[in-house]
Amino acid sequence: MGSLGETGRLNKNNTSGQQERILFVTGRLAEFSLREILEKLAPQVGFEYEVAVLNVQVAALLHVPLIQRRLQVPAGIDWVMLPGMCKGDLQVLTDHFGIPFQRGPKDHFDLPEYFGQAGRPPRDLSRFDIEILAEINHAPLLSDEEILRLAERYRDSGADLIDVGCIPGESWSRTGEVVRMLVEAGHRVSIDSFDRAEVEAAVSNGAELILSCNHTNLDWVSRLGVEVVAIPDLPEDFDSLCRIVDRLLQSNTPFRVDPILEPIGYGFATSLERYYRARREFPDFEIMMGIGNLTELTEVDTAGMNLILAAICQELRIKSVLATEVINWARTAVAEFDHARRLVKYAIDNKSLPKHIHYQLVMLRDPKLKQLGTEALQNLANQIRDPNYRIFAEGNELHVMNRDGYWKGTDPYELFDQFQAAASKTVDASHAFYLGYEMCKALTALTLGKQYQQDQPLNWGFLTQEEISAQERRREEGKGPQCGPR
To answer: Where in the numbering of this chain does the Pterin-binding domain appear (predicted)?
Structure first.
């Protein structure tokens, strides 16, 4: 019967030297573009193919009983590929026809990747070197429930240590109680305060790291027996950091060094130079970087910044960062850095570019767009014989088509008026809502340069939310497929 190769496809075990013959099963609307892909792909991979077009419009709606009834397999076929969204037990088809059946990718445009002609096997991104401290900012202003909820969210996002951020100039009497609560909930905890009472209470209840230590608190912090973060008295005063390091070494206090990352406009580039200098002068010491001064104080999406900062840290062997999620545009900064630290670790370890490895941080736009093209869209429009609307987003236009016509343009409102005027019956409220929702997604995709596929969620990287398609929703409700493609 053959076996599954590295690409996931089934390889025939024969020694005849003949190319395997694969039957690709599809619906009427995908036939044109599928044949175009196979015409180029087959000689590259080294297989022969035939295409079976069953009497359905959309290939995704194929299921095992229908295929068993309608499919005729030509002689000499080694195995059969079905659309990736085909429902049912394929063993039934294998037993019935006597040859293997296998699901392909959900989108036939992904067939080159499936057959190993574009892309490579998934990379192992489980490894990383950089520890994430996630700060609960202004913790004294939050309830215990809010603190626990934030700590859990940060841990789920990839944080290794929860930093309890106190309020400068105030002394919080519940510091120790809250730290103990977090420790008992299974969190590793650091304390971010210069107040002696807060720090001592935190340490006595399980805090393992103190942020931060300079000449203002060096005498008493160095006697608490836990690790501290050494910082300069002033960000630009690197010599003061060297003196603090000397004192910490003399007292056998464990420490990591943070030369302080400055915001853009306040010495950002110079502060980067201090990290390079710290690594030169302290080649064997742990270094930390507080990345919030860039992500929180720069009015731009943070994923790209987190990737660059992770790369700097990886190359300089900076083994910990302090991340924050205070301002709205940085609300997923911890998860972004978690993805970033894995990506740069893989890239540097394998001496490869951080490209075509994974796409979880490509959030605003998509890595690539798959276009049917003008000819294929017109071909689809000419074939449609039912009233269900198909929606596409290509060539800076929305394309809507059904048996009554083919409309394209940039204004969803105008398109709706046009195809409603041509409709053989009035679009009901449920269907109108569905069409409006899909056209909104399609226009968003056009605006941002994203791939749009009807009834599928837009790809937002690691923030992508799965959707229940209109067809699946109506099936769950026990209703017919009155919305979307059929």
So the answer is: 122-345
